[in-house]
Structure formats: C-alpha cells, structure tokens
C-alpha cells in the first residue's frame, strides 16, 4: 500500500468529503477518487461507499484510516528524531485560537519566539458559532480550545489533548450593584437577576444550566452575545449581569466588577488540540512548551494577586 494513498484515506476520514480532501491536498476531486480506487484495488475490499451524492468510509475504510493515522505518526516520529540530531526546531507552525485564549497566551508566546528566528508561528483566530474545535485540526498544527471537561470524541478522532490551564468563571456586575458588597455570591443570590448571556452551547451558557438545576429557576436571559467586550460594556451600563472568564475580563475599575460563585463548579479547561501525526514534530512540541509556560505564568500571576 502506498503511504500517500493511505494519507488520502485518512484525510477523507478527517474531512468528510472528497471535495474537502481535494481542496486541502491541492488535487482535483477526480484525482482523489482515482487514488482511492487504486488503494481499494491494492487491499482487495471496498473502502468507500456512496451515500447520497458523496462517499463515506466503509467499516474496512474506517479501520484502515486508523492504521494510516498510526503510520503517519510513525513517519513524523522518525523525522523528528532525525531533526533533533541535526538542528533546532525550525519551520512554520500554524495555530488557531479563540479570541480570549489568544488574548491570554499569544503575547508571551510570540515574544518568546523572537529568540528563535528559525521557528515561525502563523496564527489565525476563530470565534466559532457552534464550537467544535476538532473540526479545525485538519487545517492547523495546533488548535487552542476551550471546553467544560474533555469531549470524548476528541480522542475518538485520534487527537491529542494537551492541558494548558483551568480558568474559573465569575459573575460580572455593574459597579454599585448590591451584590458587589459581597466577596462571594451564591446561586440563590442570583435569582431574578437579568442576564447578558452567551450563545446556547457555549461554556458560559452551561453555567446558566447549572444555576437553573441548583436553584430550580431558569435564569432570565435578556440578550445573547458572543463578544465578551460587548458583554462587559452592557454589564457596566447596568443592563444585566453576566458570566465571564476570570483571567480575560478586562474592564475592572471601569464600571464593572467580578465576584466568584460559591457552591457550583464554574470553569473551563483550555487545551492545545493536536493531531497525533503532528505532535512528534520538534517545532510543534516547542510551541506547545511555550504555550504551557505562558499558561502557567498567567495562573500563577492571578494566584499571587489573590493572595495579597
């Protein structure tokens, strides 16, 4: 079996369509289909079947795609070992981030990379309407993702999850709000408040589900917005309260304050999501090391401030 044809099969498993594979590999759809037919002839059993107007993998195709993924990992590991003998991490690493993750992590990482001119980091930001960060991994070496818990399908798709930090969620209140006099607020204190919410399914929104389960009352959500800066301004203007991430809420002292919530788990995990065949590359591992170091600095910085 040709390794390049196995890679096309793996790409079909990851991307879901011949058209997407062709676009990603700079081929025509007919060329991709032809190579997959050759691979089927090599193995002697059908690897794809028609479903509607497209092709999907058969059970044998899924199994062989998993094998192709392991082969790709082995090739990358072999190349990584050789690279470590011959040179420092170099080349281009592509990274996708969501906005608040980028605000926290990228300045320090990019500053550190100034001392490593052979290594280039190309960053793209994505604010996903329905976040499934796994869908970005075919197109980026590293995807910074946030989640509440680690979704099982990330591992099912052959992805490696590298933990970076746990970021607590707080309640954001306008200055002068009665609850601002408390150091900590309880779920029962938040009944009857009006909320500036996040889109359904986002980590912030799931805190509202937890509050509803604890209090027996659904929160009153008057607006749903994805941009945290807009949410901060609306809260500071007295138009509602909100759930916001602790490390990246920036309007403190500007008409907005935050308070932790007692009695519930309100937090998100921030991780680096990587395809297993890309993780052995020294350049990818180096960027992940820098992300981990920057995340540790951020968490320690807030811990030190809280102890003062």
Helix content: 40-55%
Radius of gyration: 23 Å
| Main beta sheet strand tally, sense and closure | 7 strands, mixed
How many helices? 9
Number of domains: 3
List the secondary-structure elements in sequence, H or E: HHHEEHEHEEHEEHEHEEEH
> If you consult CATH, what is the topology of the largest domain?
D-Maltodextrin-Binding Protein, domain 2
Name the shape in a single word: globular
Backbone structural class: alpha/beta
Overall strand count: 11
CATH classification class of the largest domain: Alpha Beta
Mean pLDDT level: 88
Which stretches are low in confidence, meaning pLDDT under 50 for 5 or more residues running?
none
Strand content: 15-25%
Please give a structural write-up.
With about 300 residues, this protein is of the alpha/beta class. The chain is about 45% helix and about 25% strand. The protein contains nine helices and eleven strands. The protein has helices at about 5-15, 20-25, 30-45, 60-85, 100-115, 150-155, 205-215, 230-235, 280-305, and strands at about 50, 55, 90-95, 120-125, 140-145, 160-175, 195, 220-225, 240-245, 255-260, 265-275. The strands form three sheets. Strands 3, 4, 5, 6, 9, 10 and 11 form a seven-stranded mixed beta sheet that branches. A two-stranded antiparallel ribbon has the order 1-2. The relative contact order is 0.15.
């Amino acid at each position: 079996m040709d390794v390049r044809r196995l890679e096309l099969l793996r790409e079909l498993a990851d991307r879901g369509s011949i058209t997407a594979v062709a676009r990603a590999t700079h081929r025509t759809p007919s060329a991709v289909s032809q190579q997959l037919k050759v691979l089927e002839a090599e193995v002697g059993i059908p690897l794809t079947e028609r479903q509607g107007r497209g092709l999907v993998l058969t059970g044998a195709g899924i199994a062989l795609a998993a094998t192709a993924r392991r082969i790709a990992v082995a090739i990358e590991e072999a190349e990584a070992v050789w690279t470590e003998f011959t040179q420092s991490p170099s080349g281009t690493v592509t990274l996708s981030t969501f906005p608040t993750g980028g605000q926290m992590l990228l300045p320090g990482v990019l500053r550190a990379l100034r001392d490593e001119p052979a290594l280039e980091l190309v960053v793209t930001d994505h604010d996903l309407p329905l976040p499934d960060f796994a869908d970005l991994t075919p197109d980026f070496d590293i995807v910074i993702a946030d989640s509440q818990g680690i979704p099982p399908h990330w591992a099912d798709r052959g992805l490696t999850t590298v933990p970076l930090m746990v970021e607590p969620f707080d309640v954001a209140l306008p200055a002068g709000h009665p609850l601002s006099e408390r150091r900590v607020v309880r779920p029962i204190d938040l009944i009857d408040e009006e909320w500036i919410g996040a889109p359904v399914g986002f980590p912030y929104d799931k805190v509202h589900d937890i509050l509803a389960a604890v209090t027996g009352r659904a929160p009153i959500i008057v607006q749903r917005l994805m941009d945290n800066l807009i949410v901060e301004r609306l809260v500071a203007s007295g138009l509602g309260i909100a759930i916001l991430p602790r490390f990246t809420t920036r309007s403190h002292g500007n008409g907005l304050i935050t308070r932790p919530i007692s009695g519930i788990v309100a937090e998100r995990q921030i991780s680096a999501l990587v395809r297993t065949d890309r993780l052995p590359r020294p350049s990818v591992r180096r960027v992940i090391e820098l992300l981990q170091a920057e995340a540790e600095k951020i968490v320690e910085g807030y811990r030190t401030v809280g102890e003062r």
